[in-house]
Amino acid sequence: MKQPSALVALVDALRALPGVGPKSAQRMAYHLMQHDREGAERLGHALLFATEHLRHCERCNTFTEARICDVCSDESRDPTLLAVVETPSDQVMLEQTMTYRGLYFVLMGRLSPLDRIGPKEIHFERLVKRATDGVVKEVVLATNFTNEGEATAHYLAQALKARGLAVTRLARGVPVGGELEYVDAGTIARAMLDRRAI
Amino acid sequence: MKQPSALVALVDALRALPGVGPKSAQRMAYHLMQHDREGAERLGHALLFATEHLRHCERCNTFTEARICDVCSDESRDPTLLAVVETPSDQVMLEQTMTYRGLYFVLMGRLSPLDRIGPKEIHFERLVKRATDGVVKEVVLATNFTNEGEATAHYLAQALKARGLAVTRLARGVPVGGELEYVDAGTIARAMLDRRAI
Ligand SMILES: [Zn+2]
Ligand SMILES: [Zn+2]
Fold first, then answer.
1. Is B31 inside any structural domain?
2. What's the pTM?
3. ipTM metric
């Protein structure tokens, strides 16, 4: 007995999604075909449309439908500042803070030797070329404060400082609204070391 | 700052997948667009093809690309036996045992009042009609031995016995190869109660 080929192909194709194994691919396929054909069709079209239209901004590497993204094309921004983030969502978060009006470079990842993500995978050469355009004066490293994000920042800082750029990193410390009792000791230790005059 | 609309639409559409919230939809979209465009395209086509071609067998309710599925069309099968299973995968499992040569009805679910899955959602009326075609003599309830599967079997048994059908259930007991020391007490209790002469 064999399952219909359209179903087998769908279960198989769903495994392209990260974290989806054979069991959950099957569960997803059954769910879509049984309960949400409209959603399946919409997802199908969205995938094909995105595959066809999404590309990487030639300047900052984020996803865009144009050659150069809206942010990079915005002439009101300060071109002497370049913030380096791991993902487009990190960029969105930074933008929401309204505290930064410079430009960006999106790594689309972070260094992770165990996952075989090295400098090439985070587009290190393109970043160096972008940061040394003669206009950028300061590179703000805004990678995550995880082990991998910190290692990435460290690696980039060495390389960019060696090329004569000013390199900064987002400050670490107690979160706004944070009660010391509930903040982890490592964060408090860092906040103590980085304490500043008021 | 807004993300490109093709990306927003993709993240949104991915949420049709069961168990996928906003964060994992975004992670999936980034992964596909960054690392696996071929997989994204294949998944897109598979979804559209399945949506267009997969339907439910008019006799047994499983997924099929034809009006009547291969199993239901197989005249070498015993039409007096009808096994009721929750999903197409359960049917595949039963087929692999080579111990059953009757026909099937696939509920495409199990009763689950908390999830608002009642008799209508498991196609109860169609099952009754199918089982009372005058040819079927015995209905083998092969729903899972979970709480919901057992409740479903209980509900169906009552309704089908009231219509004069012989109703059976897969035997419960110690799994083949099972060591008593590692089998849960409930299973051993059931095996003791259902013990049989040898
Ligand atoms: Zn850009
Ligand atoms: Zn059938």
1. no
2. 0.80
3. 0.81
